[in-house]
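FAQ

Q: What does a record look like?
A: Structure on top, sequence underneath. For example:
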């Protein structure tokens, strides 16, 4: 028997099993739609689970949702007689089906937050890389210095960008224009 956390395949198998159990048990549509929302979010999160770090509480929540929280919630509901579960108030004036809907909504909201946190970690990498590039090469939006040799080369503004300088004069970007080229990427004549 394998020890340690479940593999991605095992987690996907657990999600498949709970969806099958709910469909075969003919849970009401209001329950099935919420269950499928939770399993969809967990499936989207699984490929990024490593980004959460080993032993993180969020990673544990994803694994426990697939292997424990969903199966227990659906299993408890399916063990009850349907007419009793769907009509008899048992807590705070709510029937078993309404309590299950509340539980699935809570799991869905929680998994949304976990997925958002995982994606934000990936997005943070974009921000860090952008800061590195800015530091290395300068502001791209201002036609930054490329740093290709001893003399800095400035990037000319694109044609039609509002630089109405006369030929042979330096524009706001510092580039010297001599004469218009027939093609924006063609070398000056």
């Amino acid at each position: 028997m394998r020890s340690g956390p479940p593999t991605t395949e095992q987690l996907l198998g657990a999600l498949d099993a709970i969806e099958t159990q709910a469909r075969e048990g003919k849970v009401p549509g209001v329950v099935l739609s919420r269950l499928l929302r939770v399993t969809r979010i967990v499936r989207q999160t699984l490929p990024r689970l490593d980004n959460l770090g080993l032993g993180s509480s969020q990673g544990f929540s994803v694994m426990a949702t697939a292997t424990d929280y969903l199966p227990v919630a659906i299993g408890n509901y399916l063990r009850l007689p349907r007419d009793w579960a769907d009509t008899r108030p048992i807590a705070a004036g709510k029937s078993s089906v309404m309590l299950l809907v509340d539980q699935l909504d809570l799991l869905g909201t929680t998994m949304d937050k976990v997925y958002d946190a995982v994606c934000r970690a990936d997005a943070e990498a974009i921000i860090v890389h952008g800061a590195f590039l800015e530091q290395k090469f300068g502001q791209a939006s201002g036609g930054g210095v490329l740093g290709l040799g001893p003399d800095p080369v400035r990037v000319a503004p694109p044609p039609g960008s509002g630089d109405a300088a006369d030929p042979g004069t330096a524009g706001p970007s510092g580039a010297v224009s001599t004469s218009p080229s027939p093609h924006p990427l063609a070398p000056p004549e």
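Q: Is there anything notable about this one?
A: The beta strands are 89-91, 94-95.
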